[in-house]
């Protein structure tokens, strides 16, 4: 499969006006091996859908790198040193259906 760098997907997602902050991570998928998931904090008063995000990044990323699942969060969880807790996000959302 194709290696997807979370930072590149996050950079593409961050250009959407409704995205205040985001984190991208992979979760196990029986069919794909892994699927790309986005956790997003939206700007106050804004809304966003998975299809809007996928369309937004399609021009700058391969379709395989576009998120297949979206979770709207109040905050992005971080570890003690301030880095995004991707493993924690994958544990929480890994069992969710796409």
How are the SSEs placed, and which strands pair?
Layout: H1 6-14, E1 19-29, E2 33-42, H2 50-58, E3 69-72, H3 86-93
Parallel strand pairs: 2-3
Antiparallel strand pairs: 1-2
Your description of this structure?
By secondary structure, the protein is α+β, with helices and mostly antiparallel strands. It has a single domain, classed as 2-Layer Sandwich (GMP Synthetase, Chain A, domain 3). Helices cover 27% and strands 26% of the residues. The protein contains 3 helices and 3 strands; from the N terminus they run H-E-E-H-E-H. It has a 3-stranded mixed beta sheet. It is globular and about 35 Å long.
Count of discrete structural domains: 1
Average pLDDT, rounded to a whole number, is 91
Shape: globular
CATH topology: GMP Synthetase, Chain A, domain 3
Judging by the overall fold, what is the CATH architecture? 2-Layer Sandwich
What is the quaternary state of this protein?
single chain
Number of strands: 3
Order of helices and strands: HEEHEH
Q: Could you name the CATH class?
A: Alpha Beta
**Strand order, largest beta sheet:** 1-2-3
Tally of helical runs: 3
Q: What's this entry about, in short?
A:
The protein is built from three helices and three strands; from the N terminus they run αββαβα. It is α+β, with helices and mostly antiparallel strands and 98 residues long. Strand 2 (33-42), helix 2 and strand 3 form a beta-alpha-beta unit.
């Amino acid at each position: 499969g194709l290696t997807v760098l979370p930072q590149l997907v996050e950079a593409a997602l961050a250009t959407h006006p409704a995205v205040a902050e985001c984190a991208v991570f992979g979760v196990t998928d029986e069919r794909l091996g892994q699927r790309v998931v986005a956790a997003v904090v939206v700007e106050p008063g804004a809304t966003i859908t998975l299809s809007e995000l996928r369309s937004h990044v399609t021009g700058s990323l391969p379709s395989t790198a576009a998120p297949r699942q979206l979770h709207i969060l109040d905050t992005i969880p971080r570890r003690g040193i301030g880095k995004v807790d991707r493993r924690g996000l994958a544990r929480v959302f890994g069992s969710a259906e796409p």
